[in-house]
Design goal:
This protein is mainly α. It is 37% helix and 9% strand. The protein has a two-stranded antiparallel ribbon with strand order 1-2.
Length: 112
């Protein structure tokens, strides 16, 4: 869908910030202060596996933080559920997808 319809992902949208508490963030696309990030990744009590999703959410709950979601936005989480083993990414189909995605974006950005 992304490769065949890049305009749906690249054209301007109406965005709105929505603050939400008590939500579980299941994404690897987020912004966070560096000092906050360092605190949470160095706290072993927040981890259940090697990934940062659970520590991020546990930290938000522990310190009563608010997630800000951007309504009308989209992101491409290319490695979601594609990691065969912890720390091992890079399947051939992932590389093909990236090549096609980059080509589609170049074509779209050069079109009038």
């Amino acid at each position: 869908m992304i490769i065949k319809n890049p305009s749906k992902f690249l054209n301007s949208q109406n965005f709105k910030l929505i603050p939400l508490k008590n939500r579980y963030l299941c994404n690897s696309c987020f912004a966070i202060k560096t000092e906050t990030w360092c605190k949470l990744i160095l706290d072993p009590s927040l981890y259940v596996d090697p990934f940062d999703e659970v520590p991020l959410n546990k930290y938000a709950a522990k310190y009563d933080k608010t997630h800000l979601f951007i309504q009308g936005a989209c992101g491409i989480h290319t490695y979601y559920n594609t990691v065969a083993k912890c720390g091992q990414c890079g399947h051939d189909h992932d590389l093909d997808f990236f090549k096609q995605l980059v080509s589609a974006m170049k074509v779209f950005s050069n079109s009038p």
